Amino acid sequence: MPTSLISIMAGVFVAGLIAALAVPSSQGVMNQRLEETTWRLADLLTLAKRRSMETGDTYGLRWTAGTATFDVIRADVTTLPATVLGTEVDPVSKQPARLVLDNGVAFIGGMPFTFTGLGAQETVYFDNWATPFNRFNAGRAQLAGAQLTLSYNGATRSVTLRPVSGAVVVN
After folding, report:
1. In the list 48, 128, 137, 171, which could disulfide-bond 59, CB 3.0-4.6 Å?
2. Which CATH number covers residue 42?
3. What is the pLDDT of residues 127-144, one digit of tens each?
4. Which segments of the chain have a pLDDT < 70?
5. Cross-strand partners of 62
6. Alpha helices for 23-169 (secondary structure H)
């Protein structure tokens, strides 16, 4: 049976339409990667707060710029500088509670946490009331602000840690 040019073109059009619908958009994949990383960062802050409240020990979130890593740590803040006693394990995955930024996701800024009278620092600690603080000299510095902004291909999302209350908000 002879095939007409119109039927061939219709077949190519339908095949192209199906292929276009089957391939996820690259923008959607980028947004999903940024979204997942942002929520993982918020989860780490929440884990550090929760562990501090549950155990009475001091837990915190530490940013290491050289490795582009956020870690939940347990610390002894009676020493100066505070002594890291270990990294926390994620209760679900049983892996270290860590976020390594990769695949083009970047943290915008130098040190993520700013404290009254202390300035910008790479670590925030939580006491057993979930209040965010940092250790200096003979006292504690109150968190003045923390907006951790992540970027991926021009899109940005941020996680805000509120002073005093320690509320974690994803923007």
Report:
1. 48
2. 3.55.40.10
3. 999 999 998 877 889 999
4. 1-3, 5, 16-17, 19-30
5. 71, 123
6. 26-55
